[in-house]
Amino acid sequence: MTSSAARATIRTERLDLLPLRVEHAEEMAVVLSDPALHTFTGGTPDTAEALRSRYRRLTAGSPDPAVSWANWVIRLRAGSCLTGYVQATIRDSAAEIAWVVGTPWQGRGIATEAVRALADRLCGRPPYSVVAHIHPGHHASAAVARAAGLTPTDVRHEGEIRWHRAPGPPGPTPGR
Predict the structure, then answer these.
(1) Can the peptide bond before residue 172 be classed as cis, meaning omega within 30 degrees of 0?
(2) What distance in Å separates the CA atoms of residue 66 and residue 47, rounded to the nearest whole number?
(3) In Å, how far from its chain's centre is CA 128?
(4) Are residues 112 and 148 in contact, defined by beta-carbon separation less than 8 angstroms?
(5) CA separation for the pair 175, 36 (Å, rounded)
(6) Do residues 161 and 134 touch, judged by C-beta distance below 8 A?
(7) How far apart, in Å, are the Cα atoms of 148 and each of 52, 67, 119, 161?
(8) Strand duo 129-134 + 94-101: pairing
(9) Is the pTM of the predicted complex or chain greater than 0.90?
């Protein structure tokens, strides 16, 4: 993904995936403040200052010229508020994606809509395959991955299941 594509807004029916900016840190610290968001990944919520520092590093780009970082915050247009983020680490022809939606916005299909839009964009340019690593007990993330056209593989990485979607348009997904 070119740096200009990584900086482009992605629009869906209800959402704007806005390219990450350092100025998002304050609102995102509130969005990501629930310790329950770390149940499967470990750690604790970051402060606004810690997020500002992380966002400075992320927006500066990867120090490895063979790797691109693409990060977006998820804005729910109806509420004009940030609700989470999606991200992609791109190497060669593969993009590893991850996502988090804040607790108050879970269960509304926001993660599914955002991840589907991200995976569709990535699989169409130039094209990339998409992978995600999901804890085997994280059924909500597995459902999001499945809805975005990813399928689980037999590969495990640090206890998580590797999910994969080949380049091109997704096949039919139940409930889509």
Answers:
(1) no
(2) 31
(3) 15
(4) yes
(5) 28
(6) yes
(7) 29, 23, 6, 16
(8) parallel
(9) yes
Domain extents for the chain?
A: 3-165
Per-position b or e across 39-57, b if 16+ CB within 10 A of its CB: eeeeeebbeeeebbebbee
Distance (Å, rounded) from C-alpha 133 to C-alpha 17? 21
Mean pLDDT by 10 residues, the chain (176 residues): 68 98 98 96 96 97 95 97 97 94 97 97 85 97 97 96 89 49
- Torsions phi, psi of 84, nearest 5? 165, -160
Joined together, the tokens standing for residue 48 give 């606004």
Level-2 CATH architecture, domain 3-165: 3-Layer(aba) Sandwich (3.40)
